[in-house]
Specification:
Elements (H helix, E strand, L loop, with lengths): L1 H73 L16 H32 L15 E4 L2 E4 L13 H5 L4 H5 L2
Antiparallel strand pairs: 1-2
Helix pairs in contact: 1-2
């Protein structure tokens, strides 16, 4: 009986050791899976953050174009650039039109500034106040100086004469 009891005790200890070994193996597997899931979650988080950053930059760029367009359009003295609803046009075409308007307006402002400087230098218009004493690389706007548009590259290159003449009819040519 003692031998049977000892054999049973040894057998149960062996089963316990085997069960403990199997449990340890499963715990190791579980830990590996947890670390893999954690890495995947981090990758997904980084991917989502990158998407958000790109989306935010895209939205900010579009908003900047729209803001500049609104300022340029409001000072141009024309009634409508778009002859139809802008909602029917693809975003890229609307932005192209808006960038063309911005470019044309900046070109106009550069020409006006250069003509003003020439008139003042030549003394043709004595009723005009003298230009600011700061360098010719800045244009005074209200209470702050902005870089001269002549020193900045135009987006998409310079606008052609035919493009600037046709700005008023762009809506009808771009409309789909």
């Amino acid at each position: 009986m003692r031998r049977n009891l000892q054999a049973l005790k040894t057998e149960k200890q062996n089963q316990l050791l085997v069960s403990t070994s199997v449990l340890q193996h499963y715990q190791d597997e579980l830990e590996k899976m947890r670390s893999q899931v954690k890495l995947q979650e981090e990758e997904n988080f980084l991917r989502e953050n990158k998407k958000k950053d790109v989306s935010r930059e895209f939205t900010q760029t579009i908003q900047a174009i729209r803001n500049l367009y609104g300022r340029c359009y409001s000072t141009m003295g024309v009634k409508s650039i778009f002859s139809g609803p802008r909602d029917n046009m693809p975003l890229s075409e609307v932005l192209d039109v808006e960038l063309d308007v911005i470019s044309a307006r900046m070109t106009d402002l550069i020409e006006i500034t250069e003509e003003y400087k020439q008139e003042v230098v030549l003394g043709l218009n004595t009723s005009l106040p003298p230009p600011p004493n700061n360098s010719s690389s800045s244009v005074a706007l209200g209470d702050r100086d902005m870089p001269s548009m002549a020193s900045l590259p135009l987006i998409g290159g310079s606008i052609s004469q035919s493009a600037s003449k046709s700005l008023l009819s762009i809506g009808s040519t771009k409309k789909k």
